[in-house]
Specification:
Blueprint lengths: L13 H60 L6 E7 L2 E11 L2 E10 L2 E10 L7 E11 L4 E3 L1 E2 L6 E2 L3 E8 L5 E2 L13 E3 L4 E3 L5 H5 L17 H10 L9 E2 L11 E2 L15 E2 L8 E4 L9 E4 L5 E7 L1 E2 L2 E6 L6 E13 L7 E4 L2 E7 L3 E4 L1 E9 L3 E8 L6 E5 L3 E17 L16 E3 L3 E10 L2 E3 L4 E5 L2 E4 L14 H9 L6 E4 L2 E4 L10 E6 L2 E5 L4 E11 L3 E5 L3 E11 L5 E6 L4 E4 L2 H10 L15 H8 L2 E2 L1
Parallel strand pairs: 5-9, 5-40, 5-41, 6-11, 6-42, 9-12, 10-11, 15-17, 16-18, 17-20, 18-21, 20-21, 21-22, 21-23, 22-24, 23-25, 24-26, 25-26, 25-27, 26-28, 27-28, 28-29, 28-30, 29-31, 30-32, 30-33, 31-34, 32-35, 33-36, 34-37, 35-38, 36-38, 37-39, 38-40, 40-42
Antiparallel strand pairs: 1-2, 2-3, 3-4, 4-43, 7-8, 13-14, 19-20
Length: 634
Amino acid sequence: MKQTKVHKSGPNNRGFTLVVVLLLSLAIMLLGGTAMYLAAINFKTTAADIKYNHAEKAAHAGLLNAFDEINRQGTGGANRSISGTMRNTAYATDILYAGRNLWFLSSEGSLHNSRVIKTALFQSYSGVGLYTVRGNVNALLNHGARLSGCDASEDPDCFVPAFIASGTIRTGSNERKSCTAAGAADGTTAGLFGAPAILNMRQGDLSVIFFKVDCFNKYNQAGCATSLLDYLEYDYGRNPADHRQDFSFGQNDNALGIPIVSIPVLLSVPAVTSSCIFPVSGNMHGRTLNLSGDLITCKKIILNSAATTVIIRGDGTRNGTPVEIFTDGNLNQTKFEGASNFAFYTTNNDKALDVSNSSNFIIHSSNEVTMNNTNTSFTLYTTGTTNLNGTVSGTADRPFRIVSANRINTGSAGISLTNGSIMTGPIAYTDTNQVTAPQNMEVAGNLTIENVNIFARSFRFVKKATVRILDSMVYVYAHACPNCSRQQSNSSLSACIATDNRWCGWYGEDLNLNIGRAADGTAKPVLFISNNTTVQTIHPVGTVYIWGVWYGEGVTHLSWKESATQNLNGFLARNFPSGMTLGVTLPGSGFTMNFSKQMMDAVAMKYRFFRKVECVRDPLTPKAQLLQTGMTSY
């Protein structure tokens, strides 16, 4: 029998080897994939870092270009955006006015999907100068004149540029000096001093720089939320007693800036009992009505239509309210002497009205009104001529107020106006097209004005008058009429000097002129606004003083003939049309102009729309700006 041999073999390793191979392959693949992933991540990170660096540099370049843009265009420009590229990297920068003389800058640099945004603040004080001009200039600042933007009375010292304009600025041998130079702050040494002395810079709208506004007039200005004329309408056009709008500038209709007055319609003569008619019978001439004792139960009094001269005295208070008095015929010739607390209406009457030594009253008149001696705390609405003599005053809580569509005359004996407002303007702006337009103040003697707001077409001063305007605001608009040109650089100057001096915003010969300076030398700065108008002074007596802020809108000029010495302290700003060239010539001697921070602070305190001055204490370079404002990126 044959035996079969069975051979036993060891374990079968082929399956195990396959698993090992697969595991090793997987490990290798994982390692390789990881390496590739890490390489890809590294590549992306490196690329992202490169793009970030490029985007950051572009954002930085946008900020630097924005600084250049502000210095080149001036700080009065509107909010705006600039953009550009650096090779294949782009930047877009927003320049936004941040208030308090600061600009906020936001610059975005981008490359593909990488974005970097940098922000900074830029101090825009370089736009505020002692003498600042918008538009081009052909200026000659002669040797011997003094312009100093250096005020050492502040702690620390406060500096502004002495002269800011764009164009040709010649100084001759008049050396440009910094505020550390000898004589910079002494008020008398001739020279050009400032930080810097001269800044040749193309400015934008100066109303934005000097006032807290977006423009001067909102007409056709879509981006202007608040204009300077808005403030003037609200603060001075409204009667503080009843908030009635006494004048407005019609900004929706025109860009003229002429105050259009609103005179209330005269009330009709009311029906009253016969006991409230004065006089009821008897002599109709020279009768006296004593409001304190006569007709005391009458809240409304009618002057008899047959009465001629009627003298009214006494206190007209009736149950806590003023009595109302009406004329009822052309024979009524009314005189108030020492009367108070009344309202008077010249209804159906064309006779002149006299008021003296009276207080706390309101008059509605279509006739000539003459005020003599002392009259206080009153309101006058009139379409007739107003004659002011003696003293006209108000109090802090009851200022006087004159709203007129006609001429305001002051007497030859001199007059003092204190604590109030005077506004004379047309009923319609086209009424100012003629040189004979009557909405002027005609000064026949010495004049002192203190704490009074005046809106008038022009001032006309008698020869040899002493004029002192203190702690007040003045707005003149003689050459702002619809037919008056704003397209030629000498339009208002030629109209004032060559055509007819009634086109001048003020005109006077041989004046002793003190604006903002009291008789004892105390500074009481004035805000003077000239709308497209030239002011002219011929042969003034002694030194002409203008202390405060003189702001010219449009084609404005200051014309001096045969003026020995002029002293200006504060700011002189000329918002000249940007497309025109203004000739500026400072005399070789006798002209001094100094910056006073204290005066400008006083103006900013009194007029809420005037922008407080920020002093120059750092250089106007991008590097300094970036260091002190702390640029950020994210």
